[in-house]
TrEMBL record:
InterPro entries: DHOase (IPR004722), DHOase/Allantoinase_Hydrolase (IPR050138), DHOase_cat (IPR024403), Dihydroorotase_CS (IPR002195), Metal-dep_hydrolase_composite (IPR011059), Metal_Hydrolase (IPR032466)
Organism field: Gordonibacter massiliensis
The enzyme's E.C. designation: 3.5.2.3
One cellular-component annotation, GO: cytoplasm
Binding site for substrate: H62, L63, R64, N94, N279, H310, F324, G325
Domain Dihydroorotase catalytic: 49-235
Protein name, entry field: Dihydroorotase
Protein family: Belongs to the metallo-dependent hydrolases superfamily. DHOase family. Class I DHOase subfamily.
Length: 430
């Protein structure tokens, strides 16, 4: 199939592109980018006023399938991804059963091929059953397409175990993505330990419960040489640890979420809104400001959502009984545009680095760029679209977003995966 996208503002720092141009796509690949392009037959669309960037990818998503399809499944989760402007996601292995062997990897790949609205990369677990005791079948999972390893949902508690994980992952040139949580220190913590935990009468979750494991895993990265990626980093000191590791030349990267950038512990009021209960917890305003600075100065490598869908009945419970997590696939792009790009804190180019280019480098998957020969995974954005986050608008099965009611600017209108539209004019293509 041939596709011609006309008059778009194309932006891709990977190839130094920031101009108005046409994009010609044929057989799933970009054929040409230039002025006044034409084709004999195919689909032609005028994207005047729109921005086109390499397809966005979210490398930290919970699709919940297999086992928790009541919360989300691969069909609904990838619809939510496409609706948010993503052409690919990387799904976490804390499903039921845990994705700790090749069968789990192949199941997700098969389901995504059958019902998915975006590409799905699969992360395998580090340990069998996420128990942190015995290595998962890492080599077999790599052979069947696993792109990374993580025990996301809980940290690998033993330093010796983490060393074994990283020794093995290094053999396959796969990144280990670390959920940094010292369970002995965090205990039954519910919210960030400090003024707000005291005000709410909740058990505190100290920042050190995250930072100690960040420091430990950086040390093990130094020992093993294995690429290390710090997941959902939330604290200023944690960011400093990553900054120092990068300065040392270690293969360390990190990610942050929109909710840790743009919400703080102060958002949790006397209504005890469980949509704001996340793991790790919302931190202080000072921490959030430090994360924004890290995004700005290049210390942060990726913005991810940690999209964590839950049922209404689970979240509609006492704060300490409700599960951790919020959804984010359908709001992330707009939050970044509204809070970072529009105010001039970061450029469009930096946004593309954070949400498209660098995440793929971390996963070691195929580069997606606006250049001839590249796969035609494209995100089309209306940079000036004004909208209000409404639960009724979500494609996800879940509505547990901490941003409901937020007034945002900028939104994906079209998504192309391999040259085929999965979203067109804001509607998912059936």
């Amino acid at each position: 199939m041939a596709l011609l996208l006309k008059n778009a503002h194309v932006i891709d720092p990977q190839v130094g592109l920031n101009e108005t141009a046409d994009i010609l796509v044929r057989d799933g690949k970009i054929v040409e980018i230039g002025q006044n392009l034409a084709m004999e037959k195919g689909v032609e669309r005028d994207l005047g006023g729109k921005v086109v960037v390499p397809g966005l990818v979210d490398i930290h998503v919970h699709l919940r399938e297999p086992g928790y399809e009541l919360k989300e499944d691969i069909a609904s989760g990838t619809r939510a991804a496409a609706h948010g402007g993503f052409t690919a996601v990387c799904c976490m292995p804390n499903t039921k059963p845990v994705i700790d062997n090749a069968v789990g990897v192949e199941y997700v790949k098969a389901r995504a091929a059958a019902v998915g609205k975006c590409r799905v990369h699969v992360a395998g677990s580090c340990s069998q059953g996420l128990k942190g005791e015995t290595l998962s079948e890492m080599g077999d999972m790599v052979a069947h397409g696993a792109v990374a390893f993580t025990d996301d949902g809980r940290g690998v508690q033993g330093a010796g175990m983490m060393r074994r994980v990283m020794d093995y992952a290094a053999q396959f040139d796969r990144v280990v993505m670390s959920h940094c949580q010292d369970e002995d220190l965090v205990g039954a913590g519910q919210v960030n330990e400090g003024v707000v935990s005291t005000r709410l009468g909740m058990l505190g979750w100290p920042a050190e419960g995250e930072e100690i494991q960040i420091a430990r895993d950086i040390a093990i990265c130094r020992l093993t040489g294995c690429p290390l990626h710090i997941q959902h980093l939330t604290t200023a000191r944690g960011l400093e640890l990553v900054r120092a590791a990068k300065a040392e030349g270690l293969p360390v990267t990190c990610e942050v979420t929109p909710h840790h950038l743009f919400l703080t512990e102060d958002a949790i009021g006397d209504d005890y809104n469980t949509f704001l209960k996340v793991n790790p917890p919302l931190r202080t305003a000072e921490d959030a400001a430090a994360l924004v600075e890290g995004v700005k100065d290049g210390t942060v490598d990726a913005i991810v959502t940690d999209h964590a869908p839950h049922n209404d009945f689970e979240k509609n419970a006492e704060f300490e009984l409700a599960p951790f997590g919020m959804i984010g696939l359908e709001t992330a792009l707009a939050l970044v545009i509204t809070n970072l790009v529009k105010p001039g804190i970061i450029s469009w180019e930096r946004a593309v680095e954070l949400m498209a280019a660098k995440p793929r480098e971390i996963l070691r998957v195929e580069r997606v760029a606006l250049e001839p020969g590249a796969v035609a995974d494209l995100t089309v954005i209306d940079p000036d679209a004004a909208w209000t986050v409404d639960a009724a608008d979500f494609q996800s099965k879940a509505v547990n977003s901490g941003f409901i009611g937020a007034e945002l600017t900028g939104r994906a209108t079209d998504v192309y995966v391999g040259g085929y539209a999965t979203m067109e004019d804001g509607a998912i293509v059936e």
